[in-house]
Amino acid sequence: MPVPFEGGCLCGAVRYRVTEEPLGVVICHCTNCQKQTASDRSPVMWVKADSLEFTKGETKTLEVKGTTGNMQSRHFCGNCGSPIMTQPHARPEIRTIKAGTIDDPSWLKPSAHIWVASAPPYALIDEELPQHPGNPPSIG
Length: 140
Hints:
By secondary structure, the chain is mainly beta. The protein contains 1 helix and 10 strands, in the order βββαβββββββ.
């Protein structure tokens, strides 16, 4: 994995850098990710909060209740609307980066599908990967 790596939103107003390897990479099918991406999935990676640094611009934030019932802050570009990351309030040491915002995602290899209990019938799920009905047993 190339560390550090960088990413940002569609219009370039928000940029970030991650200085440590991700704790995990998964495909999320929770209903919040479905609404935010207008899709059946959201490829995401978990990183340590202190390894994430915003290098340009600021995100807007939407506070929502997650699928587990815990609150989370969903960060997005206020200009183009690109979702950038989620901060789960129950896990302040973790940030969930939207993998589609990484400049070079060619090295990402998802290890599982999560929240498959929420996946719509048309969801494309790789049967070769482990599937979890909700969150995986552990993150980081």
